[in-house]
Amino acid sequence: MSNITDSSKKTDRPKTVEQSSLNIEGSCHCKKIQYTALIDLNRVRICHCNDCQVTSGSAFRINLPTLKSDFQLVCGELKTYIKIAESGNQRALCFCDNCGTQIYSTAVNDAAEFNLRVGTIKQRQKLVPQSDQWGSEALPWTRDIMDKCRLI
Question: Which residue range or ranges hold the CENP-V/GFA domain (predicted)?
Fold first, then answer.
């Protein structure tokens, strides 16, 4: 993950990486919610903000922004929770009301882009993070986790 940037704010994707589109399929855990989307492989990013840590139940969240116009809900109906950040910004967290899987987040007032949750995407093995954001809130051990923990 040498393209990952360490920053305290949102970072742009690396300028040297070529654009690459992929049609993906996704779903919640219980499969009540299913969707398709057109995504840019170069926009996968890790978010270390405290809100993502809490709402994901993990040390960080991996997001993939896509345009609302490139997202198609195939089946199901999403439930929405409005999260208010410390800054006062509001985000709509959209999830399955049956199993609780978060599908995406978006702006409350102008939902032009959805931040898909990479874990819900069938082709997630192809989705390598290209940047990160809110590095100042990252848990210290996340920077070298692969060196400390070898997956078997």
Answer: 24-142
